[in-house]
Structure formats: structure tokens, C-alpha cells
Amino acid sequence: MLFMILRRIGSGVVVLVTVACLTFVLLYASSSNIARNILGDQATPEALAAKEAELGLDQPLLTRLADWWAHALRGDFGRSWFTNEQVFSAIASRLPVTLVMVFASIILIALVAAVLGMLAAVRRGWVDRLVQIGAVLGSALPGFIIGVFLVWVFAIQLRLFPPISKITPNAGLNLWVLSLTLPVIALVINGVASAAQQIRSAFIRQLELDYVRTLRSRGITEREILFRHVLRSAAPAGLTVLSLQFISLLGGVVIIESIFAIAGMGRLAVEATTKSDLPLVMGVVVYTVVIVIVVNLLVDILNGWLNPKVRVS
Amino acid sequence: MKSRTLLAIPALAAAFALSVVGCSSGTGSPGGGGTAGGAELVLGIVQEPASWDPAQAHVGHRLQPFQAAYDTLILREPDGAYSPMLATKWGYTDDKGMTFSLDLRTDVTFSDGEKFNAAAVVANLEHFKTDNGPQAAQAAAIGSVKAIDDDTVEIQLAKPDPALEYYLSQALGLMGSPKALGSDAIDRTPVGTGPYVMVADQSVVGSQYVFTAREGYWNPQLQKFGKITLKLLADVTSRVNAITSGEVQATLLDPTTVQQAEASGLTKLAYPTDWQGLLLMDRAGKLNKALGDVRVRQAINYALDRETMLKSLGGGFGEVTSQVFGPASTAYVPELDTHYTFDKAKAKQLLADAGYADGLEIEMPVLTPGFETLMTMVTQQLADVGITVKQTSVPGADYQGLLGQGKFAAAAFNIFQGPSWVASKLLLSTDGLYNPFDSATPELTKQLDALQANGEDKAAAQAINTYVTENAWFAPWFRPSQLYFYDAKKLTVVPQTQQAVPSIYNYAPVA
């Protein structure tokens, strides 16, 4: 098990270094108009040249890459070119709200999708058809439409929730809950739709295997078969689905954060990319890759715990 | 079962959230409210300052937040007139318009306790010149600045700049504490003489900025609120949701959200600040020979159905025009709005006269994402008279840069309609970004020189406008309206001429 973890960490580091270097080269190789973008339409050629020198854009690409790594390894990702905020601070101040939203969503998706998937697989018939129709509808509805609909009903008409985030540095738990309830529901509706379908399939595959028939023939109750045997066997597939859901949620929050004006990582990533705020984009890329690596590692560990064959392989 | 489940989720969440609210201190009531020291102003803003250093201030959206914490030397009234602010008197002291003097107030201090005086003005103007901010060009004509005495400053220009008075009411005129200028601290927290001070622990980059009224402010008439909160709402959906639910009291919307805002009983202000259209930049035909012929450029102007474009692209909010100068500038000539009318036959005839009866091709950039729809419309309308537009996608971050480098002969854009000289410098001067091929003629240069020597020379300004319109240097479509909404039960708001959003002084609580 320990060897498997070390091997996964090692491959994660290789992925991180490769992605960071490739992103850096791609971004900085096309950075010829950054100074104009920062200074705007009034800037003179002299002002543009001064800004490029200030940002280090007059240096060769490899020098800039080496400089970036030298600072990044010390935890210094530089400052945003557009807000002058330290990249680390920008990420640190926005990460909590996004992670809270994503973790709350993934927990709810796991619970709801597992219940719906199991119900559909076990009961089949009209329950199964309902779950499948619901899954198709849920997947077909874009996240922003769900978000806008929730705001219109629950924030504007019923006034139960604020339509935009009220999370500030001094905000209490109540404001966090109020601000994130609708965004989380919007994320969960989309997430449950696809996860339930896949968990259902995993359950059905298990229920059709010989060992289930053998267990039944030995007089073991359906409840025991389902929760002690089938659930454990289907869990790895469910975990994989949820880990993919987690990663897609990191992308899904982009639109939801815009609709609800949540100062989170999604909005930060979009704004940084749109403006070509390269230090910030690099910071966001590193953060995203690290999160993905950690989530995959945790899923591998859980899978290894659930299934000894994974540890051996 | 499915529908029950779906309905149950939000209902349960709502019940949970309500129970949390019930247990809370009640600080989260939507809509906000007044403070003990006076009314509260809550605005939804579209952009935030890059830094709070006054030398990094910008125009429009990114000037308004600065006005909360900084005064300017000269105050620009909503109608564009100039009034005393930190300077009580000002003007040129020579006939050539090269020496500009300002008399200053003597009863003003910065929020860090430093005294405002002539030395502070000198420090600010010199800092503005060297800090390479987005509006550094406002100080480009300044040769030197010196303090004549404690309350008099003299600006010596290296070349005439008829917009100096305007600039001193904008970014160039914002005065920061000399002690803080250039420090890291002023990047994060403003230190000015303005009516409000920022509450640092409630202000978050990318989210909101909170200000409270500054005690002992020298001009209580400009300090109309006890507290100001500026919420960054970059997405128009979040802005319309915020204002219709009362989370903010005023914000800028767009044609797609007007109906929702009006249905909620909000009050609309519609005023133009920009023009939208084509820059026909290659007037000598260096990249595209055809554009060197004035008849081709005029044909493009006649080929455009501006009324349809305004309806389709601007939701009908705005005014069609053929000129690039706005009604608030001295260069504006009302008749030029209709100089080119939609006339396909005339466009085809002009193309035939120029030797392009069989058509021609022009490459134009498409700002992506953003300009896809409008470029599709332009492409279709020009195709109707035989002009093929070859579209090239360009990311938004590169668009201005590529235009300035002369990579395209023509391009669509949305450009600010400032005072005559400001707009002329940007669009027509050989140093201007939007004149990358350095187009110039003796006739135009003569009028530009006259305007530079005397900014009040309305005849020169109008001659410039008439010349570039008749010679089709551009193909404007319309002046889109800024659609600013506010809650009239709580506020009065007056639009600010030539500014995307009202100045902070233009808001007042309803008595």
C-alpha cells in the first residue's frame, strides 16, 4: 500500500511539473500584447516598453521559466498583473469558499446519487425509469439555467436567499449557509443526474453476478446482500464516478460563481485567463493540478482499502 | 418520486437556512440599510481598481471607486462644467497655453493626517508622470511642476494640451498623501483627502469595498452617505438579480436585462458615452489597397443598415450616427449623425466607380468571445454590396495590441467619446492607438494643430469631425446607451457626461 502511495505521489509530481512548464511556455510565448492590455489605449510605445521590462517580458522565455520556478519553489507565485494582489493571497482568499461549495456538493451528490442509483437498480420497473428520465433531464439542463431559475424563485420571488454572495471576511456561519445554499443545489442537480445513472449501472452489474445468486441460495437476506456485499463491490466504481464528478465540479463552479457573484476560484480563473493575467493563471493551474492529484490519490487509497487487488496491481 | 425529490431538496435547504437565520444576529438581511451615521449607498460595480495608488487610476468604471477616497484638484460637474475642489482657482497665465497655475485650498488634510498643500500636488503630479499607470498619457504634456508658495502650483507644459483642465478633474487630478505615494500600502488602501475612508477589514479584492464617511471632511456637501459599499458584480446576470432583489441600489445593466429591471419598478438612466462601429484604419491602402480609396470607405458607410444594427446589437437603446464625436464634445455636428444613410445602390455605385464592381475582400479581426454576432452582421451587410469580410478570431487580451500594431486594415470596436482633443488624440493623431498607419493630411493636421493650441476652438473641432466623416475614416454605427438603473425610493442619481457610470458625488439619498 505504501509503495502504491509513493508511486502515485511520484507520478503526481511529474504531472505537476510537466503541466506547469507546458502552461508557462504556451502562455508566455503569446504574451506580446500584455502591456497594452494592462495600460490600455492611451499608452505610448515608451510606456509599453517600460511595462514589459517591469514584468520581465523582455527576458528570454527560458530565463523567465527558470525565474518562475525559483520563486514558485519558495512559495512565491508573484503578483497579479491586474490587481497587484499576491497570487498566493488571491488563491488563499478564494479557495475556502470554492472548496466548501465543492465538498458540500460532492457529499450531497454521493448521498443522493447512491440512494437513487441503488433504488433504481434494486427496484427496477417504474422507479428505474423515473431515475433514468430524471438523470437525462438533469444532465440536459445547463448549470447556469438551473442557477438562474433558483435565483428567480428563491431569491427574487420568495426572498429566502440572497441572489448574490454575502460572504465577507467577517461573515458568520449563517451568511455562508445562506450564500451557498442555492449554488450548491444548482451544482448538485447536475452532479446527481450523471452520478446516479452510473451508480445504478454499477449496482446492476454486481446484482447480476454469480456470487449474489450464491448468497441468495444460502438464505442470506436481501438487505445483508445489498449492504454487506454488493455495496462494497460496487463502491470502487462509485468512487471513480465521484472523483470525476469532483474534478468536473471544479470547472462547473465557474458559471455558478459568476451568477451568484461568489469570489471563488472559478471566477478568479476566468478573469485571469480572459485578461491574460499570467502569474495568476499559473497559480490557478498549479492549484488545480494539485487538487486533482490529491483527489485521485485519495480515491486510489480508498479503492485499495476496499479492493486488495488494486493494492497488488 | 423524482419531482418530489427535486422539490424536497430546495425546500429542505430553505428550511435549514431559515432556521440558521433565526438563530443569527440578523446581519444578513437582504437589501442592507442605513448606518448610524447616515444613509448607506450600495452600488454594483463592473470593474475594480487595479491598485489604490492614484497614479494607477483609470477612467469611467475604474475612476468612480477612487472618488470615494480621493478628491481631484478640479471637480467635473455632471454636465461637464468645471468647479473648484482642491483647487479654488486655475487657468493659463500666458498667451501660449503653456503655463497653468492652480490656487489651492488651505484647510485640507489627507486621511493619514498629512497636510494638503502645493508640495503635495507637485509630489502627486511627478509620481503620476513616472508611475506608468494606465492614464499616464494625461501627464504626457507636462514638462515640470513647481510650488510657487504653500497654496499655489504652476505647471509648465512641454507642449500645449487643451485637455489639461479635464485631466485634472480625472485620474491626473486625484491627490494622494505624499507620504504614502509609491508605497505597497497605498496599493491596497487609499490615502486621500476624499469624503470617505476605506474599511480595510471589510474590503476584499474581487468581492467588495467598504467606505465610511470621513470625520472632519472639508466639504460635507459632497459627503452624502454614512457608508458606501461597492460590490464587484462582473456578470450582468448577478447585477440584475442583485438590484431587483434590493441587494444593491444602483448598477449598470444591458439591453438583455432592461425588461426585468423595469418590471421591478427600477428607474432607468440611458446616456451615451461610446460609439461603436468600424475603424477603417488603412487609409493609404498599405495592407489593403482598396481601403486607400475614399469611395470604398464611403461605400462601406452606405452599405451599413445602422437602424437594424442598433435594434439587433444594442436592443434599440442608443442613437445611430455617422460621426465619432459625441454630443457632449465641441466637435459634434448634429447633421453628421445622418451623413451616411443606408443605401445599397449608392454603395455599389461607389465601389464600381472605384474599380471594384466585382467586389473586394477585407480581413477583419473578431474579438473572441464578444464580437461574433456583430461581425456576422457586418459581414452579411457588406456582402450584400460585394465586399467579402475575411474574419480572423483574436482573443480579447490581444485585440487592442494587434490593432495598434497595424495588423488589420479595418476592425470593429467600441470607443469612448471623450472631449474633442482627447478623442482626436486617440483616433486621429499619428501617435494615437487607433491611427496605426499614421494617416494624416495637411488639411487635417492644420485643424488638429489649431485645436491643440486652443481647446476652445469649436470651429477647428467641428472641421476635424466634418473632414474625417466626409472622408470616411471610420464607419460608425451607433452610440449605444449606457443603461444605468437605480432604486428611486432610496436614491437620486444624475448621470455624468462622458463617463460610463455616474461620479460618486452624483448619488444622494432620498430625504
Describe the structure.
Chain A is mainly α. Chain A has a domain at about 95-275 and about 300-310: Orthogonal Bundle (MetI-like fold). Helices cover about 80% and strands about 0% of the residues of chain A. In chain A, helix 8 (about 175-205) packs across helix 10. The model of chain A has no long low-confidence stretch (mean pLDDT about 90). By secondary structure, chain B is of the alpha+beta class. In chain B, helix 8 runs antiparallel to helix 10 (about 345-355). Chain B folds into two domains: about 20-265 and about 485-510, Periplasmic binding protein-like II (D-Maltodextrin-Binding Protein, domain 2, 3-Layer(aba) Sandwich), CATH 3.40.190; about 275-480, Dipeptide-binding Protein, domain 3 (Roll). In chain B, strands 1, 8, 9, 10, 11, 12, 13, 14, 17 and 18 form a ten-stranded mixed sheet that branches. In chain B, strands 4-5-7-6 form a four-stranded antiparallel sheet, with helices on one face. Chain B has a two-stranded antiparallel ribbon with strand order 2-3. In chain B, strand 6 (about 140-150) and strand 7 form a beta hairpin. Chains A and B meet through helix 2, helix 3, helix 5, helix 6 and helix 7 of A and helix 1, helix 6 and helix 12 of B.
